[in-house]
Amino acid sequence: xxxxxxxxxxxxxxxxxxxxxxxxxxxxxxxxxxxxxxxxxxxxxxxxxxxxxxxxxxxxxxxxxxxxxxxxxxxxxxxxxxxxxxxxxxxxxxxxxxxxxxxxxxxxxxxxxxxxxxxxxxxxxxxxxxxxxxxxxxxxxxxxxxxxxxxxxxxxxxxxxxxxxxxxxxxxxxxxxxxxxxxxxxxxxxxxxxxxxxxxxxxxxxxxxxxxxxxxxxxxxxxxxxxxxxxxxxxxxxxxxxxxxxxxxxxxxxxxxxxxxxxxxxxxxxxxxxxxxxxxxx
Length: 282
Fold this sequence. Notes:
By secondary structure, the chain is of the alpha/beta class.
């Protein structure tokens, strides 16, 4: 398994933490992305996190959900507490990266949503910086306005520079962008994680991803562009949807690892290099 491949717990959505750990052990998966929703669904989230820490797996990211409703200030305090728990979990798992969606907004225009995000997220970001945690903001495709008001890598990078965060680049939500290679080149220093899955043209629902290589996204070209422009981070497999459920988590994850391992080897990708964490500069 290439050292730049990580597997998100989202890829085995319905499995328990213990199911995941058994599979990782049997398959030789060493780098994982932890999903706060799965921990929260455990009988004892703290004990589940302890088992992950004791497993020896290298936790490369902690993904938090329940994004801010940016047009509803009443819920901001609860969401800030949720993100505080994600920071604490990352620290406990010796991980320095937390991934969180930009948040949703139905009543505000894009610019006012950005202002609201800066205000709502500000205290959490300052705490993350004190703790040495790098926040990566995640954008989505336009069908997931329930999760994020940002729907392109270009906009995500623009807003991340304003907020002094990084970006999680979801290839399934950006592969169709105008001048994608130019955007990657201009913003590669801010891309802290790249999530990989595939998509079949003609699919009208979401999330409905495929094993890399099974769909229509020019993944090898985009991964090559990332490497050529200096991206030195990890490629995280995040598989979700009916096709993954039908095939089964284990086979789908193993095929995805094989495909990505082959592509990274063919493209001559070296081992990951820890990026210059903006969070540690403050």
